[in-house]
């Protein structure tokens, strides 16, 4: 397989440094992919290819791990990642309604990204904040005791405050 | 682990080895516990749970594939509860399985179908509704050879493990998880992955999830075929045993046969590349050139004509004006008959074949050092070496099944692999150490390693004293090869030479594997002698998993040499100029024989242009592509008065022929091939030859008769009997033993001898092993101002030799269609060449136009061209400078210039 990797690009240089750091430790693949996603925001085929080549592991080992964990993304993400908790407590408290409302507001399905690359809508299993159910996270912020209306409001606010150009 | 224990399964007393797999033991004893994920050659998975049993003293049901047997173990394999559980498990598997048996290639040959039938689980009897329709399914049809359909996949992991554990490739894995799990190659697209199409996964799949594409022209189920025939692969020297599926006198499918030496494995060529046999453009009738055109004639006319012309030329110019090339593609028996024809009927020793171009230096070098010019050890021993040194062999592509053993040694037996190669070949990925030498500097790095081994006291003093001679003289030369000096000559950093010496020198069992990167040099014999020195110095000869192991390129290049298709020896390496030997053969063949060694391949071509050779007889060879300096070969072929070609296809060489005789392919005749490990393998006739094509030995026999010499062979057996009588190393390899299924390795001096697994056990063939002091000599040609690039040539996985077979297959050209040149990206940038641009490559011999491909496999200043492709034949450029002893040309080093067009 042939893939063009711009190895001079600072992101790849940074990843290469991380790979050198982890290479000699046992089972470095997940750690390296973690770093790669921090650097690139997601894991496109080129990055997976680069990781496989540098760690001397088969491509399918990388792909298997990347697709196994929800955490790893293979599509570019938006500036703001919305994660709606679908854990038991949130489910009972109406997380599905929250998800539906946000989906309608943003015009995308779960797992998709808005065309303006502002929001990615995603779900997750339990943040450990069940007392606040239903819960969502936008980037690193947790928002609890949601109603569909409040969730839409918060997202709108993000567009105004953080959206910027 | 070899302790025998007694276990009881359903009351039956069974003897087994302690630690053996319970499921395997049960099945071997006729207790057919069901199971879908178990495959004997891979580690057990325990995924399908169908093999559950109850074991006294252990709670619950346990998958028997995960149990090691212990003494006194009491097992229940079948009771109502177990069978009920299996039924439920099968129901669950079936609910996720698209059982479209009606349109499935595996219908009638499917392990799931068999079990569903056995347990009566027809569609009406299922407990669970088919949920596979509600799951996103993946169908990957991108591979040229196979289709993956996740709707049929039962996630048994057999393919994933077969790819990693059997083939040591690891191309496959599972993607996603839970119910969405499916098998994936590479990053999700089969065609873009590292998959090389060996088909091990297809063979491992218990259902129809991974299915072959109809590469042989039609969809086929096991029940559709007329018969299945086990025979030997016609491609490389490994000698894989293949099971050909035959329908209507055509090969329709190929599987790896579970027999020595490949045990079920194949490469892409063996499994998917045999359809050339079925091709319409096979030669079917003899052709004679009349007024510049080839005209079909009857056999009688063709042979009469050949006999008449050869007799005329012999009478006019003498027997030495005729030269013949036998073939490493033909059987042992055909090579025997051919060399006998040249020697007894024509009366010349001018007989050679393409081994001259690959391993002549091996035959010469190892014979001098050890007394026997062949692979010292066996293929399967490689897997158990502590250290494997691979040099000048791109094993993954040239001997794919042997490469799997080397990789398995690294992955599963903690062997250390040292690769010494100017190119970053695939094996480098598995290597502990990669030494990148400049082409043609092999004597220097081998001497350098030996310098360190001697200096650090890592040599085997006892072995040297008792088993060898010439050490002191040899040592004097080695003293001069300090790591510093070697770094200067070879470009290998000195610390790597030292490390390699230590790894190799400290090994208990070190094996050297090499091929044309060592032999195809003007110093080819020196290179081989150096490797022999290295092995003797450390006592790594004459034991299991050690030795010096030349990998022979063609299916029967070992056999063609063994059977005397060489100008200086009769069958069994018996010298033509030894009066006793001469007498023996004269008596056996009833004619006066020549005691003058004949000409080698390249010498023949020069003799032709000098007017000394007036006729050529080629059996299955294509020198217009395979030989160095093609412009000169062309001149040679044009200058002879008479040229006979015996082949299965029209080739670049047959264009120059006066007569073309249609031959049978490997699948259309009986006989034997000798693989690279000296093992005599049976070739079974699977189909009838097309038209009037005949096996080569029959053609030669009939021609001999027309020339007044009777060869009384009515079958292969008659020829093997004569070989047994005349060639001591083959004396015990009788037709009867071969028919009994014995696959013996020579030397095998009598019918009760078990054959020889590895050579030189207590004594070298020549008595004492001989150290040869060898000094480094640079290649005949080296890059300089006008020709600044270093050109090297070689083979690739998807094609073979001159491409006359592989390029006529459906599938192999889909992987690699035509000629290309590997070039370093920075060299390309400097010359303003883009990836894929056509360039002009010129050497002192000629020029070709070829596509340049950016590749970091080659080093700066070097290029590599596969030699399979006539339209941009690498051998137009290569140097025909010869090794003075073995007369092998320097195909691996030529100077060239590259221009943008």
Q: What would your notes on this structure say?
A:
The complex is a heterodimer of chains A (165) and B (901). With 165 residues, chain A is an alpha+beta fold. Chain A has two domains: 10-68; 80-162, Glutaredoxin (3-Layer(aba) Sandwich). Chain A is 47% helix and 11% strand. Chain A has helices at residues 10-23, 29-40, 45-55, 59-68, 88-92, 95-106, 148-161, and strands spanning 80-85, 119-124, 136-138, 141-143. In chain A, a hairpin with a 2-residue loop joins strand 3 and strand 4 (141-143). In chain A, helix 1 (10-23) runs antiparallel to helix 2 (29-40), helix 1 (10-23) packs parallel to helix 3 (45-55) and helix 6 packs across helix 7. The termini of chain A are far apart. The mean pLDDT of chain B is 95. The longest helix of chain B has 19 residues, at 299-317. Chain B contains 29 helices and 37 strands. In chain B, strands 15-14-28-27-26-16-17 form a seven-stranded mixed beta sheet, with helices on both faces. By secondary structure, chain B is α/β, with parallel strands linked by helices.
Q: Catalogue the unreliable spans of chain B.
A: none
Overall helicity of chain B: 25-40%
Radius of gyration of chain B, Cα only, in angstroms? 29 Å
State the strand order across the main sheet of chain A.
2-1-3-4
Number of strands of chain B: 37
User: What's the total count of β strands of chain A?
Assistant: 4
Percent range for helical residues of chain A? 40-55%
Shape of chain A: elongated
- Helix/strand/pairing category of chain B: alpha/beta
The low-confidence runs of chain A, each spanning 5 or more residues with pLDDT under 50, are none
Q: What Rg of chain A, in angstroms, do the CA atoms define? A: 18 Å
Protein chain pair with the most extensive contact, residues per chain: A-B, 15 and 18 residues
Q: Count up the domains of chain A.
A: 2
Spatial arrangement of strands, main beta sheet of chain B: 15-14-28-27-26-16-17
Mean pLDDT of chain B: 95
Amount of beta strand of chain B: 15-25%
Oligomer: heterodimer
Give the biggest beta sheet of chain B.
7 strands, mixed
């Amino acid at each position: 397989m042939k893939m063009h990797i711009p190895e001079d690009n600072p992101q790849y240089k940074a990843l290469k440094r991380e790979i050198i750091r982890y290479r000699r430790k046992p089972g470095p693949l997940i750690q390296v992919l973690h770093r790669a996603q921090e650097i690139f925001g997601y894991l496109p085929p080129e990055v997976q290819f680069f990781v496989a080549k540098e760690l001397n592991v088969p491509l399918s080992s990388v792909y298997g791990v990347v697709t196994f964990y929800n955490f790893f993304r293979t599509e570019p993400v938006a500036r703001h990642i919305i994660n709606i908790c679908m854990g038991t407590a949130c489910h009972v408290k109406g997380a599905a309604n929250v998800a539906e409302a946000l989906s309608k507001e943003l015009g995308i399905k779960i797992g998709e990204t808005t065309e303006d690359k502002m929001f990615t809508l995603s779900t997750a299993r339990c943040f450990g904040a069940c007392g606040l159910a239903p819960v969502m996270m936008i980037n690193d912020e947790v928002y609890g005791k949601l109603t569909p209306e409040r969730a839409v409001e918060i997202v709108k606010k993000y567009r105004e405050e953080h959206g910027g150009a | 682990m070899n302790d025998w224990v007694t276990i009881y399964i359903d009351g039956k007393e069974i003897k087994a080895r302690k630690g053996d797999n319970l499921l395997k033991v049960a099945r071997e004893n006729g207790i057919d516990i069901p199971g879908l994920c178990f495959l004997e050659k891979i580690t057990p998975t325990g995924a399908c749970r169908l093999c559950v049993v109850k074991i006294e003293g252990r709670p619950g049901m346990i998958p028997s594939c995960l149990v090691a047997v212990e003494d006194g173990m009491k097992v229940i394999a079948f009771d109502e509860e177990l069978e009920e559980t299996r039924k439920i498990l099968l129901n669950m598997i079936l609910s996720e399985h698209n059982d479209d048996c009606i349109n499935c290639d595996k219908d009638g040959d499917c392990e799931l179908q068999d079990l569903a039938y056995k347990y009566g689980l027809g569609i009406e009897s299922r407990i669970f509704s088919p949920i596979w329709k509600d799951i996103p399914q993946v169908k990957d049809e991108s591979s040229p050879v196979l289709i993956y359909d996740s709707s049929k996949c039962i996630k048994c992991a057999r393919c994933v493990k077969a790819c990693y554990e059997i083939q040591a490739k690891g191309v496959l894995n599972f993607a996603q998880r839970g119910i969405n799990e499916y098998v994936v190659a590479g990053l999700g697209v089969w065609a873009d992955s590292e998959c090389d199409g060996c088909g091990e996964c297809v063979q491992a799949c218990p259902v129809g999830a991974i299915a072959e594409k109809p590469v042989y022209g039609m969809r086929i189920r096991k029940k559709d075929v007329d018969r299945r025939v086990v025979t030997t692969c016609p491609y490389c020297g490994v000698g894989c045993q293949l099971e050909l599926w035959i329908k209507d006198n055509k090969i329709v499918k190929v599987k790896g046969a579970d027999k020595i030496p490949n045990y079920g494995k194949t490469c892409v060529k063996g499994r998917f590349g045999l359809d050339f046999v079925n091709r319409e453009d096979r030669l079917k009738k003899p052709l004679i050139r009349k007024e510049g055109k080839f005209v079909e004639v009857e056999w009688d006319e063709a042979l009469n004509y050949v006999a008449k012309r050869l007799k005329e030329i012999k009478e006019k110019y003498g027997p030495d004006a005729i030269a013949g090339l036998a073939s490493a593609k033909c059987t042992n028996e055909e090579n025997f008959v051919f060399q006998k024809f040249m020697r007894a009927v024509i009366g010349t020793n001018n007989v050679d074949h393409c081994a001259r171009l690959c391993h002549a230096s091996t035959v010469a070098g190892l014979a001098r050092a050890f007394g026997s010019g062949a692979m010292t050890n066996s293929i399967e021993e490689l897997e158990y070496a502590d250290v494997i040194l691979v040099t000048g062999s791109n094993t993954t592509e040239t001997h794919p099944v042997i490469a799997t053993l080397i990789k398995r040694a690294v992955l599963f037996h903690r062997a250390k692999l040292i690769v010494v190669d100017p190119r970053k070949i695939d094996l480098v990925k598995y290597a502990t150490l990669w030494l990148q030498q400049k082409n043609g500097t092999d004597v220097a790095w081998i001497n350098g390693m030996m310098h360190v081994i001697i200096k650090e006291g890592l040599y085997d003093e006892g072995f040297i004293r008792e088993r060898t001679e010439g050490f002191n003289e040899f040592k004097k030369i080695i003293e001069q090869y300090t790591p510093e000096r070697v770094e200067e000559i070879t470009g290998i950093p000195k610390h790597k030479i030292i490390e390699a010496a230590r790894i190799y020198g400290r090994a208990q069992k070190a094996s050297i594997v090499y091929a044309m990167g060592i032999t195809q040099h003007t110093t080819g014999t020196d290179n081989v002698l150096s490797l022999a020195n290295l092995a003797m110095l450390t006592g790594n000869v004459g034991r299991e998993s050690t030795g010096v192991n030349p990998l022979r390129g063609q299916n029967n290049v070992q056999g063609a040499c063994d059977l005397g298709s060489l100008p200086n020896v009769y069958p069994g390496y018996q010298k033509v100029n030894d009066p006793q030997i001469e007498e023996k053969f004269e008596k056996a063949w009833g004619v006066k024989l020549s005691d003058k060694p004949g000409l080698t391949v390249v010498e023949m071509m020069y003799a032709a242009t000098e007017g000394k050779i007036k006729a050529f007889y080629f059996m299955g060879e294509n020198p217009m592509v395979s030989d160095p300096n093609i412009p000169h070969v062309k001149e040679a072929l044009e200058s002879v008065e008479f040229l006979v070609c015996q082949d299965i296809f029209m080739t670049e060489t047959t264009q120059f022929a006066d007569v073309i005789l249609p031959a049978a392919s490997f699948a259309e005749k009986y006989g034997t091939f000798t693989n690279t490990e000296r093992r005599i393998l049976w070739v079974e006739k699977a189909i009838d030859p097309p038209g009037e094509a005949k096996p080569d030995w029959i053609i030669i026999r009939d021609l001999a008769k027309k020339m007044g010499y009777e060869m009384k062979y009515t079958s292969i057996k008659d020829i093997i009997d004569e070989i047994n009588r005349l060639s001591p190393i083959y004396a015990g390899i009788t037709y009867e033993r071969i028919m009994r299924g014995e696959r013996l390795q020579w030397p095998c001096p009598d019918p009760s001898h078990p054959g020889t697994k590895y050579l030189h056990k207590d004594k070298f063939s020549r008595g004492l092993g001989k150290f040869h002091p060898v000094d480094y000599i640079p290649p005949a040609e080296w890059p300089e101002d006008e020709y600044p690039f270093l050109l090297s040539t070689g083979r690739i996985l998807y094609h073979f030799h001159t491409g006359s077979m592989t390029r006529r297959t459906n599938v192999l050209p889909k992987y690699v269609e035509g000629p290309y040149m590997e070039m370093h990206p920075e060299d390309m940038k400097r010359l303003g060449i883009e990836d894929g641009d056509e360039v002009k490559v010129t050497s002192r011999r000629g020029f070709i136009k070829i596509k340049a491909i950016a590749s970091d496999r080659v080093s700066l200043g070097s290029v590599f061209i596969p030699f399979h492709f006539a339209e941009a034949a690498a051998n137009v450029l290569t140097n025909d400078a010869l090794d003075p002893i073995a007369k092998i040309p320097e195909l691996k080093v030529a100077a060239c210039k590259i221009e943008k067009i």
